[in-house]
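Input/output pair, single chain:
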Amino acid sequence: MDRRAFIGTLASGLLAAPLAAGAQTATRVYRIGLLGNVPLTDPEGATLWGAFIQGLRELGYVEGQNITIEHRSSEGHYERLPALAADLVRLKVDVIVAAATQNVAAAKHATRTIPIVMTDAANPVGTGLVASLARPGGNVTGLSVLTPEMVGKQLELLKELVPGVSRVAVLWNPTRAEHLLLLREAAGAGRSLGLQLQLLEARGPDDLQRAFSTMTRERAGALLVLRDGMFLLHETRIAALAVKSRLPVMYEGKDEVDNGGLVGFGPSLRDSFRRAATYVDKILKGAKPSDLPVEQPTKFELVINLKTAKALGLTIPPSLLQRADQIIE
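Output:
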């Protein structure tokens, strides 16, 4: 080979190498698995997962270009979660984004190697999902949005909302392990506030009517609804049953209040889902979940629905209205 031909061949190779590398980078498509309780076809699911996808988009990830998304939903049937999590593992997703504690637990049971990002787990240390908030260990990290202490604050606000209330019903799902932790905290807070708690289980939608009939029969003065995927799917029905039963209800989230609930106090779930995208970004860029501290909420929203208050014949105390972050009229 003469000198001119050699230089031409060398130049072609040098030019081809970065082009090939650039093409490889541009065509790398990450597969992200979503595991939740509310399907994307549900307004609540569309809102929350939409916030996560928007967070990804802000970081440069666009579905159909550099990411594909595999979504699996239990639709409130938690017994399906192990199979749904196993399905995502079989698809060899690069990361699993799991909403709520039981979804994270199912994903963690299905894999010890694929990174898992929590969107809104409750008390992840107490439920054994992570070793600590600062150094999670293992393959799980993300956001914790509900601490047991917050239940006490919700009961305190509920007592302020309904002066003189002495008996408060608590709607919970016995299939949720973290609900047991919340109930223990609620029991202590109830005693200090002079409240008698009436615990009512609801495993599925067929249990809701029975629970409200029991509340009415035993003369509960107010209701606290613990956050649950099945309850979210039936939030409009729960709000209607509460009005029919003349029961003021405290929820954790804003969305339940948007859909007819009376009052909500808790962190913004939309913000938590959007923030989960930053964890995915870091992991796809090489960070280990074990080294990414779990983020806790710093801002809590108090939302009040005056339409529902009017339907209940309830006057909201001015002290609560002044502290509300949003009032729905």
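The chain has two domains: 29-146+268-299, 148-267+301-328. Confidence is low (pLDDT under 50) at residues 1-25.
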